[in-house]
Automatic annotation (TrEMBL):
<dbReference type="InterPro" id="IPR036388">
    <property type="entry name" value="WH-like_DNA-bd_sf"/>
</dbReference>
<dbReference type="InterPro" id="IPR028978">
    <property type="entry name" value="Chorismate_lyase_/UTRA_dom_sf"/>
</dbReference>
<keyword id="KW-0804">Transcription</keyword>
<dbReference type="InterPro" id="IPR036390">
    <property type="entry name" value="WH_DNA-bd_sf"/>
</dbReference>
<keyword id="KW-0805">Transcription regulation</keyword>
<dbReference type="InterPro" id="IPR050679">
    <property type="entry name" value="Bact_HTH_transcr_reg"/>
</dbReference>
<dbReference type="Pfam" id="PF00392">
    <property type="entry name" value="GntR"/>
</dbReference>
<dbReference type="GO" id="GO:0045892">
    <property type="term" value="P:negative regulation of DNA-templated transcription"/>
</dbReference>
<keyword id="KW-0238">DNA-binding</keyword>
<dbReference type="InterPro" id="IPR011663">
    <property type="entry name" value="UTRA"/>
</dbReference>
<dbReference type="InterPro" id="IPR000524">
    <property type="entry name" value="Tscrpt_reg_HTH_GntR"/>
</dbReference>
<protein>
    <submittedName>
        <fullName>GntR family transcriptional regulator</fullName>
    </submittedName>
</protein>
<dbReference type="GO" id="GO:0003677">
    <property type="term" value="F:DNA binding"/>
</dbReference>
<dbReference type="GO" id="GO:0003700">
    <property type="term" value="F:DNA-binding transcription factor activity"/>
</dbReference>
<feature type="domain" description="HTH gntR-type">
    <location>
        <begin position="14"/>
        <end position="81"/>
    </location>
</feature>
<dbReference type="Pfam" id="PF07702">
    <property type="entry name" value="UTRA"/>
</dbReference>
Amino acid sequence: MALLSRHSIEPGPLPKHAQLKEILTEVCHDDLRPGDSLPSERVLEEVFGVSRITVRRAIGDMVADGTVESFRGKGTFVAKRPLRSDLSLGSFTAEMTQQGAEPSAMILVSERAEPPESVAQFLGDGPHVHLVRVRLGDGLPYSVDDGWYNAHLAPGLLGRSVHKSVYSILASEFDVPIDEAEQVCTAAAATADVGRALGIDVGQPVLRIRRLSSSRGRPVEVCTSTYRPDRYTLRMRLHGGRE
């Protein structure tokens, strides 16, 4: 294949499977798009002059780090790029749209209820709006959002479509723009409910972000988002402090 012709495996200290992984990873990022198929194992053997064991080890390593997905009887395909967040006040919907994916949500809970004490300490006495949503990008699950919203500031929120951005609804329909938030990121293990929603095994590592959001000094949201780490990454830009 033409996209492989500029690459070769050379004698040296780096094992052949590691060289092949580097080559195929570069091809995935530079020449292919998510969902495109990689050349077959037989083609890779012939092009690079390596054994089937070498090819399978390279592809297995790429599956492990999330670069590709392999399906028995179908082949190996470039995996979806992880959603990248710059830790801004933007919504999940805005982040997905900016990165070329179609956002949507599956609603698991939509109710007006008394919040747990940890939520009431921030939002005040309830009842408040409780939404649990599986957030999707191009139909794939990225996170489970368990959010509580101040019903005194957005009393009609349950009557709106919350399959996309709640932040947009709060700003445009209730004049409650989110302008400040505090959030904490932790590692956690997937529970049975989260695993079922995200399509992962119970106990698999997940990224959990708890956000307390405000609008003009008024408490608006307490939301715990649990992400598949293979589909979501955090990026931070750091600067040296002044002495």
